[in-house]
Specification:
Low-confidence stretches: 1-6
CATH superfamily: Fumarate reductase/succinate dehydrogenase, transmembrane subunit
Number of strands: 0
Largest sheet: none
Number of domains: 1
Order of helices and strands: HHHHHHH
Helix content: 55-70%
Strand content: under 5%
CATH architecture: Up-down Bundle
Structural class: mainly alpha
Amino acid sequence: MARQGLFGSALVKKYWMALTGLFLITFLVVHAAINAMIFFNDGGITFNKWAHFMGTNLIIRTMEIVLFIGLIIHIVDGIMITRQNRAARPQNYVYARHNDNSRWYSRSMAILGILILLFLIVHLDNFWIKTRHIIGNLDAYGVDAAGQENLFARMQDVFTNPLLVVIYVLGCFSLFWHLLHGFKSAFQSLGLNHRKYNGFISAFGAAFSIVIPVLFASMPVAMYLGWVQ
């Protein structure tokens, strides 16, 4: 039986999971939009301008803290919900027909979440830690043609490594499956579930789950293949 209390109930955990998930989704939109500036093909000037804004704006820097808190809550909630679900079904039926009730990715959210977390660790180590001057900096890459800190050059350097490109693509693939279930599930957990707009939410969620991961994956691939200069 799930532990009782405001922060112990399974229902509240699902609410927090949904709210933090939707918050992280908004971050994905902003992050994808900024990263897509590399496709201006202007030597990274437009991208570096917006990257500098994101790294120096006080509101954005504050939101980074909120984002990390939201990410931690989302991860912890996911782990706790998974453990509670397993505890409620300590034994698997020998002839369990899982596909009759749910998709494989909806039953694998914890595994997909862990894969995304590992990808995020690699991503933060490659970019965020250096741009925030926590460990290292971007001094070795000089400045771009507009005299701005050259994060674009750092991206070009990182994505000359085919292994890192593969890791990023696999991370985006995991993100696709995670979003495919999580987007619609978040609205259901919050009680925003009505036959009038369920179809729209499902269709929009499916489109979002494809567009955002494909956009993220296209960036390292385009840089590796030299399509972006």
